[in-house]
């Protein structure tokens, strides 16, 4: 479907969006006069980092911008209801009634977070039926029959029964399928998918991408696919539009973008995602391409563990069971971690991979004693952490630290960065007085690559990547021996993720820390880990050196995980 | 962060403005917030001035005619005052002559002469007062000022007290969960299963009977505080359950922060907006509750005035068309309460680093 078609469905011309901030500041220009086409019956990917204006552009077309947005009068978004014939309608100048008739019927949207996009108090059937009744004028029974048909189409098993389920009774992947069913219910001509797979596991991501691709082909619709990850685009897009800072840097057919990228920014986006076949000492970052020669760090890093490596942490027979109350006295046991054994070598990284619900986060929290283990031993330099009293544990707390997934949630919004960094030093009496602690905090800010002024700022003034640096600096104040990174780069854009991974690697080289790196992203884990442990349903499926496991996976489950890595990048193998 | 440094770092070190300095700067930008701050400060100053006897000390003096008109209605007819004057005139009319049978009759003349020597200056009662007068001709304006003393004190301190109890118990129940939560929920259920008025009366009866709660208006504060914390408790508990599982609290636990530090240093500033809003709402509620208590005789003593007692008096006056006491007390209350809740809103915004 890559052949050029004359039939254009949507033509965006000179789209320019500004946001009023307050009376004192000039309006912020989020989208700076971009133009692109969406041909009928094809998939266009809009790629860029957060803040590049990609979502704003899509929302502008839909007329869903917030109150303080100003769309320049010269902007146009011409929509051709019958591609190839007739004049286009400018959606940016359409009135409310016109847009309401279009939204949901001709143009529909899938959002990033299925959990927050579905209304928890209505069954999924009712929610899908709503747009059918509204736009197609169906009666209750007709709508219900159509909903079951739709649920079957998006691959929900037992659609007859699940039509009566509430959103919380479904998994994240199923919820996203419901969102898709809702979006295609009225057979739209254009489907806008705003980061539809970012919140999902790799295996689920693969399924959803396949589903969108097959639906696109079947219904002959166009898809505008918005993402920060060029990797997922390769499989499904026909055209790619690369955005940065509100401008289009490059656009073209997917093969052209992947095989002969012209703009350094596109090259950088392609290169900064860790790859399965290569492991440079440092990952390339955007700045390497925008400022430097574009061919840095070709030296490979070797990974792996040797039997004679000193062991810092040993876990034996770790079990964790959660209990759900059932009825008045009943309890139901839900085993989250089942008989986990592993050893962590000093200065090495252990990758922990698995889908959500596999118990990998629970392992991390149990090691930290943020959860109480049901049974097992966690030997830290020979002492069992799980048997220590709270007071004895304090001495070990500073030596084993954790960085959480969501940098927006793990920093107290009411603390300045200075307070965040000084607090752990105060608790553990590091530094002899406040001055020394403040000095140390400044030194650490510099070490993780933040400006000294950051000391006085609040977390909300930073971007996701910068916040993750603050979280890393907080851990470093205590000079831990073991650092648990719980999905620490999963919430970040691909380009920022490379920077944080480089920082983590530098710190490991400098301080000889051991990492337990928990992630669902296999490429990232492969890049950073010496040894990898695959978990499923709370148990270890397979454990081996990282190169070994990717070359010759022994278990069926591992093979399944590996096969769901987006293949888009492999075609662009030798770019960087 | 003191300025003396043994080893000055390369970074320029500025004096960091604290949370409160920043909050004050933000509040100053907020016109609504500043106006309400001025209004609230004015009421507090008025209350303090009246407490120290600078203004409205002689609020109980009968300086006007009964139901004196407000100055802006000076000419209006005042039937009650005329009726009262007539009654007084009647009492001054010479009594029926009983001198032939009255054994004291010969001495009346002597007494009258002696009485005439004592200068009885008939106070000229004002026909109109700034905001009118009540039944006994007392100045409504002065009553409002004096009444603010009791009302604001009772409303504010009782609300502070209730918010304190509610926040502490809510924090404990929400944060610890388990048996602490069960126990506190049990107490909460007992408190809320009793109708509110009955509960207040029960406490008031105990306070009156034992006298252990002290005298004057202190018992009212305690009664309202001890009965009014339940709603706040419930909200704070929900907030603590929500925040207790947040990652920033987990992160604090990971660095070894104690339970108390996590509860009050980490979580409390993030949920304080709930307490602040509750504080302003309960202040209003308690000013009104004091009316009920006063009406039922458990409130302020009869020799004191509060907005509550004024409102209670106003019920009867309204029937005969004397609306100004109701108006004065109601307006004072409305202005304070509006300003107070706007101020708490602005305070909440000013204290939130996310909103700039």
Layout: helices, strands, pairs:
The complex is a heterodimer of chains A (576) and B (356).
Chain A: E1 8-19, E2 28-39, E3 43-47, H1 54-62, E4 69-71, E5 76-79, E6 89-90, H2 96-102, E7 107-110, H3 114-117, H4 124-136, H5 140-153, H6 159-162, H7 172-184, E8 190-194, H8 202-219, E9 222-227, H9 230-236, E10 239-244, E11 247-253, H10 254-259, H11 264-271, H12 286-290, E12 311-326, E13 330-345, E14 349-353, H13 360-367, E15 375-380, E16 383-384, H14 390-397, E17 400-403, H15 417-427, H16 434-447, H17 464-476, E18 482-486, H18 494-511, E19 514-519, H19 522-528, E20 531-536, E21 539-545, H20 546-551, H21 556-563
Parallel strand pairs in A: 3-9, 3-10, 7-8, 8-9, 14-19, 14-20, 17-18, 18-19
Antiparallel strand pairs in A: 1-2, 1-4, 1-5, 5-6, 10-11, 12-13, 12-15, 15-16, 20-21
Helix pairs in contact in A: 4-5, 4-7, 5-7, 7-8, 15-16, 15-17, 16-17, 17-18
Chain B: H1 19-29, H2 31-51, E1 64-70, H3 79-92, H4 105-117, E2 126-129, H5 140-176, H6 178-193, H7 196-210, H8 218-228, H9 230-244, H10 247-254, H11 259-295, H12 307-319, H13 324-351
Parallel strand pairs in B: 1-2
Concise description?
Chain A is of the alpha/beta class. Chain A has a domain at 346-374 and 385-572: Rossmann fold, CATH 3.40.50. Chain B has one domain: MetI-like fold.
Can you give a write-up of this model?
The complex is a heterodimer of chains A (576) and B (356). Chain A has a domain of 217 residues: P-loop containing nucleotide triphosphate hydrolases (Rossmann fold), CATH 3.40.50.300. In chain A, 35% of the residues lie in helices and 24% in strands. Chain A has 21 helices and 21 strands. Chain A is globular. The N terminus and C terminus of chain A are likely disordered. Chain B has a single domain, classed as MetI-like fold, CATH 1.10.3720. In chain B, 67% of the residues lie in helices and 3% in strands. Chain B contains 13 helices and 2 strands, in the order ααβααβααααααααα. In chain B, helix 9 runs antiparallel to helix 11 and helix 12 packs antiparallel against helix 13. The longest helix of chain B is centred in the middle third of the chain and has 37 residues. At the A-B interface, helix 15 and helix 16 of A face helix 10 and helix 11 of B.
